[in-house]
Amino acid sequence: MQDRFLRACWRKPVDRTPAWYMRQAGRYLLEYRDARAERTVLEVAKTPKLAAEMARLPVEKLGVDAAIVFADIMIPIEAMGVSLEIREGIGPVIHKPIQETEDVARLRALDPERSLAFLTESIGLLRDSVDVPVIGFSGAPFTIASYLVEGGPSRDFAKTRALMFGKEKVWHRLMDVLSDMVATYTRFQVRAGAHAIQLFDSWVGAIAPDDYARYVAPYTRRAFAGTNGMGVPRIHFGTNTASLLEAMRAAGGEVIGIDWRIPIDEACRRLGDRVGVQGNLDPAALLAGKDVALARTGDVLARVGGRPGHIFNLGHGVLPGTAPETLAAVTEAVHAYPLPGGLA
Ligand code: CP3
């Protein structure tokens, strides 16, 4: 297996900087739009052959150094008995949002061997169809909780923060249940063959540092503990996290994922040399054309300067409307970048 992604996660020397992209299997790919024409995104995820093929495509088309399992952060939530849908152009919608202890009590413990057998199959098929590592993933407890409480996407997460501050017992109970779920779910994916795990705490930047320490970090740590000692590197990603970077590092993960709002050299300096760093290219740069995308890619690479433990990625997911050729050109440029003392 071509393993420069895993080597970089462990901060070992690499021949070239590895690259992959969040949402690399998505609407910007014609083949994905075709597959989606007659199915919902959750139906694609639950059809192992199709899910594995969607996850394989970007490896072939973009030349990326890792594949990510085709699923969604809401898959295990549905398996806990929550009625939900994913609305196109909007995101997850929860039919009965969580407000009270009784709502939390209704969540079933996740039994992935029983309810998510399709994932074992799709991870197995994906492993067999690519020569690069397979990344399993989960939402982190806070980001999942935010959907359950808000009932859908939110700009300011006011309901979530109000519940956290005003109904502390409900919040802690919910986070207990979700951190156990994430631990179980990620362990399950590693047993199924995932070589690495990413926790998406996409919306955690909505929280102040003191509140992160009190209401989020202990649960993220418990979620990571599910895969402690399994020999797989874990990536801890969030957006808008400039005030939380050190706290996120302390909460767990061998690699910290950042968005585009912080210069990557500053993030590297603050995170120090015991963790890897992933991300940073503004996804909107890819919509501005190849020249802009390549110039900004060069800037990210120069700022990192060959630091061990760098994984090239975007600051968030690939946007619909991105040209696959632009992403392929960016990948090529990342691979061509000379590393200090590295071979070509
Ligand atoms: O290549 C990949 O990354 C595909 C696998 C994947 C999906 N969802 C499939 C999907 C991954 C890693 C996710 C994670 C996910 N899902 C996150 C965390 C990452 C992030 O973007 O912060 C979140 C917050 C969700 C919830 C969710 N699901 C949202 C916000 C949306 C977008 C809704 C829209 O239409 O814009 C979805 C739908 C979804 N899940 C798509 C894909 C490829 C979009 C395309 C579609 O509707 O078919």
Portion in strands = 5-15%
Give the number of helices.
Answer: 16
Question: Under CATH, the topology of the domain at 22-258 is which?
Answer: TIM Barrel
**Ligands, ions, cofactors:** coproporphyrinogen III
- The whole-number mean of residue pLDDT values reads 97
| Basic shape | globular
Helical percentage? 40-55%
Task: Note the main sheet.
Answer: 7 strands, parallel
Whole-number radius of gyration? Answer: 19 Å
Number of strands: 9
CATH architectural designation of the domain at 22-258: Alpha-Beta Barrel
Low-pLDDT segments: none
Walk across the major sheet and give the strand order: 1-4-5-6-7-8-9
Could you please describe the fold and organization of this structure?
The chain has 344 residues and is an alpha/beta fold. It has a domain at 22-258: TIM Barrel. It has 16 helices and nine strands. The chain has helices at residues 4-9, 30-36, 41-45, 48-62, 75-79, 101-105, 112-115, 117-129, 141-150, 158-166, 168-192, 209-225, 245-251, 264-271, 290-304, 324-336, and strands spanning 67-68, 84-87, 91-94, 134-139, 196-201, 234-238, 255-258, 276-281, 310-314. The strands form two sheets. The chain has a seven-stranded parallel beta sheet. A two-stranded antiparallel ribbon has the order 2-3. The relative contact order is 0.15. Coproporphyrinogen III binds next to strand 3.
